[in-house]
Design brief:
By secondary structure, this protein is an alpha+beta fold. The chain has helices spanning 27-43, 136-148, and strands spanning 47-49, 59-64, 78-90, 95-100, 108-115, 117-123, 129-135, 165-166. Helices cover 16% and strands 27% of the residues.
């Protein structure tokens, strides 16, 4: 296991279209995913795409930790999940603004319109198909991470750059913590892992 260096905005690796992973069961991919998770645990992050650790491959790791879920939301924490070659398909044209941060753009946040409901298909590290139908925060997180695989950072999706701001300027109240309960909904019946 190893802590990995995170590429910041401006690094060319973040602008590239990442390569598909030919063999999701390759032990080198499992090691990369484990190192990415360890790196996220170390910095307290929730999602990371391989290009952010200077590896231009289509690999994403993410979780939804209990502390992110606002009180009163009917939503269970999601353990660390590894997505190999994920593909996002919007299930609605509707987009809603949601604030985002990115480990490659430290200290900032911005409000980004995201599809409110998406299907994510991918392969697991043991070669099984994964399908998740997600809404709200979960759907945004997947769109954000998968955008990294296509060289897209969240400011490139923003429609109102006046909302791009330093976290430290918002003072004690932080920036919109906790998130609204309505961002935490899930198509539980339709979701499989
Ligand atoms: Ni990011």
């Amino acid at each position: 296991m190893a802590l990995l260096k995170i590429a910041r905005m401006g690094n060319p690796v973040l602008k590239k279209i990442a390569d598909p992973i030919a063999d999701p069961t390759d032990p080198q991919i499992a090691k990369l995913a484990a190192d990415m998770i360890e790196t996220l645990e170390d910095v307290g992050g929730n999602g990371l795409a391989a290009p952010q650790v200077h590896v231009s491959k289509r690999l994403v790791v993410y979780r939804i930790a209990a502390h992110q879920i606002p009180a009163g939301a009917d939503f269970k924490p999601l353990p660390w999940t590894v997505l190999v070659n994920p593909v996002i398909e919007p299930l609605t044209d509707e987009k809603k603004p949601i604030w985002e941060r990115c480990l490659s753009i430290p200290g900032l946040h911005g409000i980004v319109p995201r599809h409110t409901r998406v299907r994510c298909t991918a392969t697991s590290l043991d070669g099984r198909p994964i399908e998740r139908i997600t809404r709200g925060f979960h759907a945004m997180l997947l769109q954000h991470e998968c955008d990294h695989l296509d060289g897209i950072l969240y400011p490139m999706r923003m429609t109102d750059l006046s909302t791009l701001a330093f976290n430290s300027e918002l003072g004690e109240r932080g920036f919109l913590f906790p998130r609204p309960v309505e961002e935490f909904v899930e198509d539980n019946a339709a979701a499989t892992t």
